Amino acid sequence: MTSTAPLDPTSIRRAPKVLLHDHLDGGLRPATVLALARETGYAELPADTEQGLARWFRESADSGSLVRYLETFAHTVGVMQTREALVRVASECAQDLAADGVVYAESRFAPEQHTDGGLTLEEVVEAVLEGFAEGCAAAASAGHPIRVGVLVTAMRHAARSREIAELAVTYRDAGVVGFDIAGAEAGYPPTRHLDAFEYLRQANAHFTIHAGEAFGLPSIHEALQWCGAERLGHGVRIVDDIAVAADGTATLGRLAAYVRDQRIPLELCPSSNVQTGAAASVAEHPFGLLAALRFRVTVNTDNRLMSDCTMTSEMSALVEAFGYGWSDLQRFTINAMKSSFLHFDERLAIIDDVIKPGYAVLIG
């Protein structure tokens, strides 16, 4: 006789997970921030203890403002300006995710933000790739195999998106799986970077776009219909195009219907979305409605340091808020794996050989 594993954090941590939206500079260990600050001479940290620094990041990110949320990155980026620092941070990222049960992750970072110490864009990318290779090997040795793909990100307010897009193509056979743009949405529409997106499409390269987080439907429309995004980074504001009647009946607008019909993945980040004001609480997050309407929802952490979260805690919060069971968590995980930027056969192998067997053990 078989039995279902309890839906608690211990069991959820054992479940295989897929993470598509996680920022490398948003997931440092507080102890590592302190150590790198000492090693690099960075003297701007707002606290000098591990606990104090962790608390500062969380409280600063809880402002309800995306702009203030983004300001916390000055300190993590500030200590990531050497090759050694980048290798260490990437290695620890892979190991931390693997220990949390993540079997495939796509980690994103902006190379242009790590050149203040004299590194070239290419040297930045190569250091991060080296770190992930080191971290994946260490995780496998510890019994927690993980595969990590890199997304190189351009900043919306800058003018280097074409350069960064070229990096994505140059290193796509070395571990870079795609491209992204990030930063404050208001005033910086994705259409400012059309040349980068046209270049990527012509090169048969993958890309996602941060859209529909702090800004609404126009940002999502431009990302999809003007730029050709394959996924939406966050995309939570697609709910603005859905009307829910008193009896619970939902009517989708044309953009929402297009997103659902085309199976465009939504890289939803519940805790982060609450912090930046995109949702009032996890219980009120549009994730529940979007999942019920069968949008291709995925669960993500965004910035583990600022949100003090893991994939286990994000899934646990969704279980508590919406009463999800193991079959729901498996569906969200398979949604993410289907939506990754790996080749189809590689996606299928992870679904069939890792995810489904892993959940079968838990479901019983």
UniProtKB/TrEMBL annotation:
Documented EC number(s): 3.5.4.4
Catalytic activity: 2'-deoxyadenosine + H2O + H(+) = 2'-deoxyinosine + NH4(+); adenosine + H2O + H(+) = inosine + NH4(+)
Active site: E213 (proton donor)
Cofactor note (record): Binds 1 zinc ion per subunit.
Residues annotated as binding substrate: H23, D25, G183
GO molecular function, one term: hydrolase activity
Source organism, top-level taxon: Bacteria
Enzyme superclass (EC): hydrolase
Function: Catalyzes the hydrolytic deamination of adenosine and 2-deoxyadenosine.
Name used for this protein in its record: Adenosine deaminase
Organism: Rhodococcus antarcticus
